[in-house]
Here is the input.
Amino acid sequence: MRATMIHKPGDIRVENLPDPKIVSPTDAIIRTVATCVCGSDLWDYRGINPVDQPHPIGHEYVGVVEEVGSEVTGVKTGQFVIGSFFASDNTCPHCQAGYTTSCQHREFINGCQAEYVRIPLADGTLVATPEQPAEEFIPSLLTLSDVMGTGWYAAAAAEVKPGSTAVVVGDGAVGLSGVIAAKELGAERIIAMSRHESRQKLALEFGATDIVTERGEEGIARVKELTGGVGADSVLECVGTQESMTQALRSTRPGGNVGFVGVPHGVEIPGEELFFSHVGLRGGPAPVRSYLPDLIGRVFDGRINPGKVFDLTLPLDEVAEGYRAMDERRAIKTLLRP
Amino acid sequence: MRATMIHKPGDIRVENLPDPKIVSPTDAIIRTVATCVCGSDLWDYRGINPVDQPHPIGHEYVGVVEEVGSEVTGVKTGQFVIGSFFASDNTCPHCQAGYTTSCQHREFINGCQAEYVRIPLADGTLVATPEQPAEEFIPSLLTLSDVMGTGWYAAAAAEVKPGSTAVVVGDGAVGLSGVIAAKELGAERIIAMSRHESRQKLALEFGATDIVTERGEEGIARVKELTGGVGADSVLECVGTQESMTQALRSTRPGGNVGFVGVPHGVEIPGEELFFSHVGLRGGPAPVRSYLPDLIGRVFDGRINPGKVFDLTLPLDEVAEGYRAMDERRAIKTLLRP
Here is the structure.
């Protein structure tokens, strides 16, 4: 099959790899219908995460089940499925508590920018759509495998409630999905922090009520000004740097909450500052599996259309251009069709 | 009046100071009926916090109103009152959200180890008891001015729920109060981490179901063992060191919560570890004012008896011995009678 490999930072290639095979009786093999490039793939691409040796890449996917292992009963050949970037058994205590990405048997699914993918723990990981989706739904369904579920978790961890004020730090695909989630969870005011016109436009379309272009101390002051000096009830931190975390913590009202979903790179949270802020903080890899049934319903109902975050669609063979476009911020997010 | 001054670390003296006077029309003056020494006073006493010049000390008090300013309407002369260590107006947005210790007009109340104290923002800060309390209730009522309210906040911030498992890190007066709070909030299992026999005994009397004497990695392993490998739903961090914070975070299940009330000294929370833990974290100076009406009721009803944390009672003139006894861990907490 054709599959994407990262050889070293900046070096993305499509190569021929052996087709994946069932390894465990709980596996499924899916034929990828659509996959995409994640902001977190750029950590490798930019050399911020080390790339010690060439390896397959990509962890977002929707597809059709090609084959299932002998113990798989929840999905069957021919079904259209979506799954999380972490395989999970969906039965352990952590899964039952809703934290499927802390599953006691979790396994990171990599190599999805390819024609076929092996999915471990298929019964726990995959959710079949009620019917074969129309072509127009495919981009939105694809976002449920990561970014839309991640934005949802950011809003849930930040405890967005009806009538509340939410701030979204980060205007990438996750931040934009966070705007959708905040709106769906009933936020009355949604302040998107963004400096890029195309992203501001999409944020407003998704439900943002205010755009803040300032950053750092000025950005914090602007949020305070917009909230009568109080700070926001909920802040969604969708970047993962020290600056974005500081921005999030200091934009939140005492008693408010920060949900942080940008994988922290070199972030340290000063205990004393957090203490005196009275801000609640929860983050982590989003348990997107837990949200799939609900979010699939919202997509099929036409309530949400997160697929709009894809502003570039390429054939898999042009994946390298997909990375470049995102790296150079020419694209918010690249969808790939194998 | 006689009042306690700290001159330098280890140097506590009772001296004659001028009686406090009404400064602002929202002030009240109270005659202290009982006061005490806080674990956080020991930070000064031990020189961990700098003591640049001699200053009055103590922030816990119950007393009788002696005089009120012209704008005070909520309490009157002769009433028995309890208040928080932070004065608060109880009307600003932060107070209304329940975070009185983040009041936009907050003022730290110091110098309570004395015969009289000036209380700013008396209407927002003080709560009168329904009647003059019997002598036996005075120690418990005194704890509501800080440690019992702080333990309560730790349990609330850690989201202790009926049927849940709670761990309490720290066996000082706050940790022991946290055991009471966890029990009142319905925890089914309460694991107290303590190495001191007298404190273990009190923890068990207050509702702890398990005692863990191990610390560090061994302590974490023991909590995991007691919780079927899962971790606790709620952890109350009542110390404020890097070690205790690490203990708390690593003892919590994914999706669980840490409430931290030990004032952090040099604590840094690694963003990446917090991220992958899925643990929620909220701390701060406890908004004890918010809890006063409820907790006063629980004391008068005889439901809780947090006054048992006082295992040493001294006249104010012997305050120096009260500090020494706590510093040397001969006493859990010292009550002082002016």
Q: What stands out?
A: The first strand of chain A starts at residue 2 and ends at 8. The radius of gyration of chain A is 19 Å.
